[in-house]
Amino acid sequence: MNMPALYHTQVSTQTWQTAPPEGMMKVLTTITRPFNDQKPGTAGLRKPVAVFRQPHYLENFIQSIFDTCPALSNAALVIGGDGRFYNREAIAILLRMAAANGVKRVVVGRGGLLSTPAASLMIPHVAAAGGFILTASHNPGGPEGDFGIKFNIANGGQASETLTNAIYQRSLNIDRYLILDTAAGIDIDAPGRQALAAMSIDIVDPVAHYADTLERLFDFERIRTLVANGKFRMRFDALHAVTGPYAEEILEHRLGAPPGTVLHGIPRQDFAGQHPDPNPHDAAGFVRLFMGADSPDFGGASDGDGDRNMILGRGHMVSPGDSLAVLAASARHVPGYRDGLTGVARSMPTSQAVDRVAGKLGVPCYETPSGWRFFCNLLDAGMISLCGEESFGTSSNHAREKDGLWAVLFWLNLIAVRGETVDEILLQHWREYGRDFFQRHDFFIADTELSEQLMSRLANSINTLAGKQTGGLTVRTADSFTYRDPVDGSISRNQGLRVFTENGGRIVYRLSGTGTRGATLRIYLEQYETDQSRQQQTPASVLAPLARMAYTLARLENFGISTPTSII
Ligand code: VG1
Ligand code: CO
Asked: What are 171-183's pLDDT values in tens digits?
């Protein structure tokens, strides 16, 4: 293989005068100035495409990662993304910078595609020192949409808060980055090995290793019997995002579901103009498919980068908190979890349904801040087997990211083994454990300063709320959530404001950390109900008093906020 040596040159712009000596490739040490807004949010750095396309913007952030993690030089890296607009350009820049920074080998998903869970599995599989996942997840795509970049470490998990902060600090001081003068000749659509200077590039099938891993966790034989019998009808909506090829391979090819089971299976750069977010608001059309008497028996959907899941039965969407609880309660039915669970975890705003299951199983349940990175230490230490978030995210110790198709297969495995419908499984779960009614009210607030004022006013009064009565409900306790990581002892403060009522209700307030414009206030409502005769009510009716209390305590009206942008 032809591997030219590197030839370093310092430039202050992208143009230079001298040609590199014969057989050498030129590394440009490009002078740059810091941007002050490269602080990653809940899951990586997300910005409008136009921000990422500013000269030096992406390069600065990538170099900040290389500078903070010197172990990446001389090592292997995984690169892939959700296929959104700017994915290919960003990968070309990443390849040039990886080669210039001394990376020995990169593994790239063919076409630049890798779902987030597939990338998480690929990183340890190829013994990489880390990986770059190019995604803004459920945020809209296209030239007017968002782009994002996430750095994952050697175990396949998201960078910790400490590492993320160190990368951000570096981005505030960066003054140069290293980049090869060209990546011409590299074809990310051509499987096999290529080379860029001294770095080898392996273009791999983005689906095969992921599908093989899931096949080992679930009873594909039983699921095949269920889905191929012609009576059980299922649909999976890939929302024109990355999971299309994964779902077609697993559901249609390996499990024998009829062609057409996967809807919107072709990944598009702009997700056909939609928000690729599997929830009843953004995927309302898909949810409607399940509300008729003749609807399919089972539905699943995933998001832009394949880590979220929505589960539907006939007439019902399964609330994500319930889904996590059901999976934990029935894990022994599934081959990968036959030996039982070491523990479970949920993000703080997620409903407490899984806590009740953990109590009965006699295993610990951990409560973490929002964001998957907080689960990774617990997973690495073997302290938990399953974990999940209310935002349609569920996964297990098989990966270090949430995994949309994993959740779909888990449910299919349960249905195949138990011989019950989604509805029957849910009803039985509520009978045994009680039901946690749950809703999230999101408010888009264009003025970020206003949203911060609202939260800081509430935070300042949070310790005085106990005993306060509004609309017939009484506050039992209220606080600001602080997390102490039980593995490394690190402390994360201000992770959301919690209000518990005397009658078993809970309100949580936090600001979204994934948006790229304005702010989004999230209010999470939960009410526990053990009385079976009342478990069939709708979340909207049960949670209405709690919603009123939540709005009053936050004085939404004083801030000119009245109607939620969406209720999920
Ligand atoms: C949201 C969810 C959070 C999730 C995060 C990333 O964050 O609430 O639970 O981990 O998105 O998911 P926020 O800060 O906007 O509430 V994904 O699929 O966008 O990587
Ligand atoms: Co996602």
From this structure: 999 999 999 998 8
